[in-house]
Design goal:
mainly alpha, de novo design (two linked rop proteins), 2 domains
Length: about 170
Amino acid sequence: MKNMKVSTKLIVSFLIVGGLAVAVGGVGVFGMMQISDSGSYKYENIIEPMPHLSSAERTLLMIRIHVREMVMAAMMGDFALVEIEFENILNLLPVLDEYMTSYRALIRAPEVIRIFDEARLLYENSLLPVVISIYEASRIADIPAVLAAMELCRYSLESRTGEYPCRYHNPLQ
C-alpha cells in the first residue's frame, strides 16, 4: 500500500467503508424481515383467534349464570323462571358452538388443537348432559336430583382433569 497513489488509497478506503455499510444494511434488512415474519406468525396464531376464544368463554359463563339462576328458581318453586332460564341456555348454545367452531378453524399449533379438542369433548360429554339433567329435575322441583346432577358433573370433571374446575369453595362438600 506504500507504493500506491493517494487517490488509489482513498478509492480503496471508500470501497472498504462502502462494503461494510452494505453488509451492515443487509444484516439490518434481514433482521427486519425476521421481525415482520415473527409478527405475522404471532398475529395469525395468537392474536387473531383470541377474540373468538374470549367470546366463547363469555358465552359459557353466561350459560353457567343461567344454570345457577335455574337452580335457584327451582329451589324457590318458580317454575316459570326455570323455563325462561332454560330457554336462555338453549339460545346461547348455538352461539357458543359458533364461537368454538370459529376459534377451532383459526388455531394452527398442534398442541393447542389437541388441548382445545379435549376441552370441547369434555364440554359436550360432561356439561351439556348435566345441564339437561338439572333442567329436568328443576322442572319437577326435585332438589336432591339437581344437587346430584351437579355433583355428577363435578366428579366427571375431576376424573378427567384431576381437580375441581371451580375457583371457589364447592358448597356440596
